[in-house]
Amino acid sequence: MKKDTITKKLIKEIIIKDISKYILGIELDEIEFLNEEYQRVESRRADIVVKVKNEYILHLELQSSYDSKMAYRMCRYWLDIREITDLPIKQYLINFSNKNMKNYIEEFGYNFDMINIKDIDCHTLLNTNSPDAVVLSILCDFKDQNPIDITSKILVKLKKMLKEEEFRKYFLILEEISGLRDLKEVVKEAEMRLMDITFEDYPSYEIGMEKGIQQGIQQGIQQGIQQGIQQGEEIGKIKAFYELGFDIKEISKRLNKSEEEIITIIRS
In the chain, what is the straight-line distance between the N-terminal and C-terminal CA atoms, in Å? Predict the structure, then answer.
């Protein structure tokens, strides 16, 4: 997917603020990322460390699998952060695994807050009128429902709530955070469902149809008109895929057309 409408850094900032607001209950207005050079340089690095206003340091650790030594890792991160600042440190472990982990080290008197995502029903966020909350619902518990069905509901709701430019932004956020639960392929499948349902709703589809039909009419024969209609449908699909953010290779593969044909149609 193309990432030209929103940067990785902006996605990360939005995710931090949304997780803080809708999962932790903390409103964040101003945040400043700590420079990476201040974080431990090794294979394991704290996920998110930000300075909030100039009042405290917020450390969010997003953990997708069970780790029996997680408390020691969190303690090590706390020590790393303490080396560079005297501000109060708030630590949260967002646990995406199905097992609880210890959030304390008794002999040190050390502890941190832990949120078990499996304890949050996805519908709690999905049923709100906030696109930020709706996107975050993909991180929560689906209960016994099919992940593709839930993800499709998320996309349909976002599509109804947002204008096209905003929808694309939130789709990129959804795509990014879905990786925390290894659901990127599920998001792609749900996206294809949405495309099947709503192709005709895209302005680019209508424009493509009009262009193809006009080309057929210009040929001056009925056969040309029919060919133009078919060509218009193909143009519409290509432009709709591109409008949603698919790259050239993906469109080529899905529609069985050469990349050169795709590029020519997009530029037309």
Answer: 21
Q: Give the angle subtended at the CA of 161 by the CAs of 156 and 165, to the nearest 5°.
A: 95
Q: Which amino acid is at 56?
A: Y
The pLDDT tens digits for 122-174 are: 998 998 888 988 998 998 988 888 998 899 889 988 988 888 788 888 988 89
Tell me how far apart the alpha carbons of residues 191 and 6 are, in angstroms, rounded to a whole number.
Answer: 19
Give the length of the chain. 268
Q: Is the pTM of this model over 0.70?
A: no
What total of structural domains would you count in the chain?
Answer: 2
Domain housing 73:
34-119
Taking the CB of residue 91, how many other CB atoms lie within 10 A of it? 22
Q: Which two tokens stand for residue 95?
A: 């646990």
Question: Does 147 reside within a domain?
Answer: no
CA 223, CA 227: separation in Å to the nearest integer? 6
**Distance of CA 241 to CAs 66, 111, 219, 256, Å?**
38, 48, 28, 13
Q: Give residues with Cβ within 8 angstroms of 132, minimum separation 6.
A: 14, 18, 21, 22
Largest CA distance in the chain: 87
Q: Is residue 92 part of a domain?
A: yes
